Amino acid sequence: MTPCRHVLDPAAPDVGPADLDDVVARELALLDPAVRRSRARLEQLLDERFTEVGASGRTYDRGAVVALLLDEGATAAVPVADVEAAAVAPGAVLVTYLSDPAHRPARRSSLWRRGPDGWRLRHHQGTSVPGPDV
Asked: How many structural domains is the chain composed of?
């Protein structure tokens, strides 16, 4: 697994290191081509009220993101760096990282929420980073 910095918060006593590991594993799974080609797996990971703000500034809902991912034809996992998982509130984890640092770097943040079915991604945002100097 990609090295990850954990940040625990006393304001989120129900979120421990194992939760942070689980959420990061789920986040990284979304970068795996096999997961990106599986409607069932995407629907397990994305909250019904999922939203995304893309690097372009456009907003997407769950249905649009699932359709885009199923159609993209990814063949390799997206590389990441600087992964951090932080408990931010009871049942909530913020994951931040740099995606594709060597080619098309973007700062990414994802808010994960624990519900009755486990951890699900509620919101994601990507912001392009200019040039290779990140």
From this structure: 1
